[in-house]
TrEMBL record:
It comes from the Bacteria. It catalyses: N-(5-phospho-beta-D-ribosyl)anthranilate = 1-(2-carboxyphenylamino)-1-deoxy-D-ribulose 5-phosphate. Keywords: Amino-acid biosynthesis, Aromatic amino acid biosynthesis, Isomerase, Tryptophan biosynthesis. This is N-(5'-phosphoribosyl)anthranilate isomerase. It comes from Lysobacter yananisis.
């Protein structure tokens, strides 16, 4: 994707919410999407019922994203039924058929921390033809996301013909530089806007949004 950057607005996804009040504030501050984590082992994992309650705190025109990592099919179905996310995000070894099987557009997270075998742009498209976009995250293949660590942004494949989201260790302090360096469709952050896992910090969310807006004014 190589969009014109004139009047460009980098989309912002805040992920890993556990409290409805944080969701409300994130929407007021200008988040485009709010993520709920259902990946086993995550400190931010919530039950479908909790996510459903938080979804009701979403402002109009803000997307709900449900995040999984090799979850059983029935768990994903239950989340789709209860939470009605507008987008799914898969961080495990799921294939395209699995990801498409829920009838909801999906993002496929790509591990950028290890070997980059098969991550040539055309190979990505062939592996995930049904993906609405890709999310480049810092973990190694088989590792977990939400680490708060960055990866070498130069490793992002050039010429991916779908929107991509930059993730992994993005914070209010580096998001300006990250956007200028990679020109992503959007940025996704979990740890960088928290005071503790799952607890979002209002000041950090505000600073993050301000820095994204500053970067968008800078990009030509
Ligand atoms: O947030 C989590 O706990 C999580 C667990 C398992 C897979 C992904 C997870 N989060 C996603 O990881 C990236 C980067 O997060 P961070 O900003 O480095 O903390 C982001 O896409 C989160 O949505």
């Amino acid at each position: 994707m190589n969009p014109s950057r004139t009047l460009y607005r980098t989309r912002i996804k805040f992920c890993g919410f556990t409290r409805p009040g944080d969701v409300r504030l994130a929407c007021e501050l200008g988040a485009d999407a709010i993520g709920f984590v259902f990946a086993a082992g995550s400190k931010r994992r919530v039950a479908p019922e909790e996510a459903r309650a938080m979804r009701q705190a979403l402002a109009p025109l803000v997307d709900a994203v449900a995040l999984f990592a090799d979850n059983p099919v029935d768990e994903v179905r239950e989340v789709v039924r209860q939470v009605r996310p507008s987008l799914l995000q898969f961080h495990g070894n799921e294939d395209d058929a699995y990801c498409r099987g829920f009838g909801v557009p999906y993002l496929k997270a790509i591990a950028m921390g290890g070997e980059l075998a098969g991550q040539h742009p055309s190979a990505l498209l062939m592996r995930y033809p049904g993906a609405a976009g890709f999310l480049f995250d810092s973990h190694a293949e088989g590792g977990s996301g939400g680490s708060g660590k960055t990866f070498d942004w130069k490793r992002i494949p050039v010429g991916v013909q779908k929107p991509f989201i930059l993730a992994g260790g993005i914070t209010p302090d580096n998001v300006f530089e990250a956007i200028l360096a990679t020109l992503p469709w959007g940025v996704d952050v979990s740890s960088g806007i928290e005071s503790a896992p799952g607890l979002k910090d209002g000041d950090r969310m505000r600073q993050f949004v301000e820095e994204v807006r500053r970067a968008d004014c800078h990009v030509e």
